[in-house]
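Appendix C: a fully annotated inverse folding record. The material below is reproduced so that readers can follow the format used throughout the book. The structure is listed first as tokens, followed by the designed sequence.
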């Protein structure tokens, strides 16, 4: 019989979601907006320590709103981390603006402050500074926010912190996602907590978030009839989904603990193999370890990242390559890119060598040991074959 499939990061319900959904049904609040939405926004704002939060239909919608609020328009430039999911940059295109991609650095795998500095110098020379910088916190690890903030402040350019993957993580003791002018979180089904689909825009600028609410609800003017002076979006979260989010938020800290434990177990079992390295955690930060991610040095380990992925798939285990950098994506062909290193780029190195291992907070220890066993078997098998060739 085929073994059960192990997923990369499946939803993990707490059991309390149902209570909030039932309340919504009982009170007939099954429309977009409602008491769960209001409460979920307050609870998230309180959890991450910002003045206000706006619940929306996705993390992508939250980025789009942030760009609209910063008045990013046709012809504007927006700097963006290259090593990320395409959703970080797509809203730049929705606005008719132009992305410029910034490489990763080795300590966090996130935006390189030195490449960012170079991009700013180049932009200054060209007389076209960016309207915004989108900084991504990859796989739950915060970027070097202090350095990045200092550069952006020098040029007076606001930051949108894409913390889609890093809810529950901290940087210098402060919640990830709260360092920019705007922060965004995603509650997509694979994230550390989910609403099945949804997102949150956070900021200390309450006036801007009032405008975000207006834009996210079709930009309806305060008139006694339907009047619109500006183009809006249908981006608000439903009261049912916000109920799921409330039940999930209650156990977020436990989910962070569980994912960090999973990371530690992988580390304990696999880090002694020469050629396997784990995604680092920057000093004074705590990653939520949304996904345990490793790099594989084929020369040292004898097998490639691609071979590990194929082997896991054969065993019905879902693992993934690290994001393909956006500057390599066909849709962004020809877009400007600033590298952290002279030859090639660090994000390309991570793409070539990196894999994400199953990391769901509901991953049973027995299943994790199956993933680990599969990787160990592959390494040992390869070593034995090499020994035979060597002896003969
Ligand atoms: C880094 C990053 N940014 C943005 C998003 C977009 O979030 P959503 O899927 O909720 O639109 C995601 C995840 O899906 C993501 O991983």
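Designed amino acids, in order:
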């Amino acid at each position: 019989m085929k073994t059960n499939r192990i997923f990369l990061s499946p939803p993990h319900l707490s059991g309390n979601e149902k209570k909030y959904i039932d309340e919504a049904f009982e009170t007939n609040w099954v429309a977009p907006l409602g008491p769960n939405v209001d409460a979920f926004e307050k609870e998230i704002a309180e959890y991450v320590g910002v003045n206000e939060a706006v619940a929306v239909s996705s993390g992508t919608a939250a980025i789009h709103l942030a760009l609209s609020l910063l008045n990013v328009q046709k012809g504007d430039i927006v700097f963006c981390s290259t090593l990320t999911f395409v959703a970080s940059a797509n809203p730049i295109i929705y606005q008719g603006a132009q992305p410029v991609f910034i490489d990763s650095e080795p300590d966090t795998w996130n935006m390189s402050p030195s490449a960012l500095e170079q991009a700013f110098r180049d932009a200054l020379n060209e007389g076209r500074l960016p309207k915004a910088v989108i900084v991504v916190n990859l796989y739950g690890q915060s970027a070097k926010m202090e350095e990045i903030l200092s550069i952006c402040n020098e040029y007076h350019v606001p930051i949108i912190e894409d913390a889609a993957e890093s809810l529950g993580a901290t940087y210098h003791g402060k919640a990830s996602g709260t360092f920019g002018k705007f922060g965004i979180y995603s509650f997509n089904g694979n994230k550390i907590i989910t609403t099945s689909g949804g997102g949150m825009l956070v900021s200390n600028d309450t006036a801007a978030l009032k405008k975000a609410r207006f834009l996210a609800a079709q930009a309806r003017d305060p008139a006694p009839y339907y009047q619109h002076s500006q183009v809006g979006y249908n981006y608000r979260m439903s009261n049912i989904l916000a109920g799921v989010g409330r039940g999930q938020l209650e156990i977020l800290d436990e989910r962070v603990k569980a994912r960090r434990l999973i990371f530690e177990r992988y580390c304990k079992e696999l880090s002694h193999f020469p050629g396997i390295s784990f995604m680092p955690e920057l000093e004074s930060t705590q990653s939520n370890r949304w996904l345990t991610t490793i790099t594989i040095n084929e020369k040292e380990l004898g097998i490639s990242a691609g071979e590990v992925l194929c082997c896991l798939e054969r065993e019905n285990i879902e693992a993934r390559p690290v994001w393909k950098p956006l500057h390599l994506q066909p849709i962004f062909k020809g877009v400007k890119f600033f590298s952290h290193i002279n030859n090639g780029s660090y994000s390309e190195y991570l793409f070539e060598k990196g894999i994400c291992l199953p990391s769901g907070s509901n991953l049973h220890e027995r299943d994790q040991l199956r993933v680990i066993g599969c990787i160990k078997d592959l390494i040992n098998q390869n070593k034995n074959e090499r020994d035979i060739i060597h002896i003969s």
